[in-house]
Amino acid sequence: EVLMTQSPATLSVSPGERATLSCRASQSVSINLAWYQQKPGQAPRLLIFGASTRATGIPARFSGDGSETEFTLTISSLQSEDFAVYYCQQYNNWFTFGPGTKVDIK
Amino acid sequence: EVQLVESGGGLIQPGGSLRLSCAASGFTVRSNYMTWLRQAPGKGLEWVSIIYSGGNTYYADSVKGRFTISRDSSKNTLYLQMNSLRAEDTAVYYCTKGGNWFDSWGQGTLVTVSS
Hints:
heterodimer, A: 106 residues, mainly beta, seven-stranded mixed β-sheet, four-stranded antiparallel β-sheet, globular, B: 115 residues, 0% helix
């Protein structure tokens, strides 16, 4: 099983600031990595797939990078609607998710 | 517009059975990979099962032998039959479209396994 870890567990950021979230895989997943955003009481929403390709309708302030075992999600200028929990997910060997990073207001 | 609507969740005693349904619109279930995921209260996301367009099905080890995924093309609906339910199966169950990344999600249905 591919284990996914995310850091930090919580990230406190002021609106307008940049946020960088990290995701690590226990073994190489190539670029078979997706990112999701989840707000309270809602289903997750796909942001990024293929490590760096934005899903339909996702604003350009969201960007993904990385390969093999190290990945990042960057939100260039946080908007009020971006405060949420973010999950990474690998699909190289079945499917596993990271534990999430909560982005909250500083 | 793609839409997924789950139903069938509820409170069930340990050892009991439930069948979840996921009614799809805006696309054809039979022609797509469809996946069930779940999220225990306050926890992260866990893959449960997938059915490929060709009909092959696969399960997480935690549910293998107890859960069955299926689809009804005439109703454009996905199902998850859950037997021998355990307390650790308590979660919101999501129906999703996709077999790698999951680009469309239902609103989820809560399954609570408790006596």
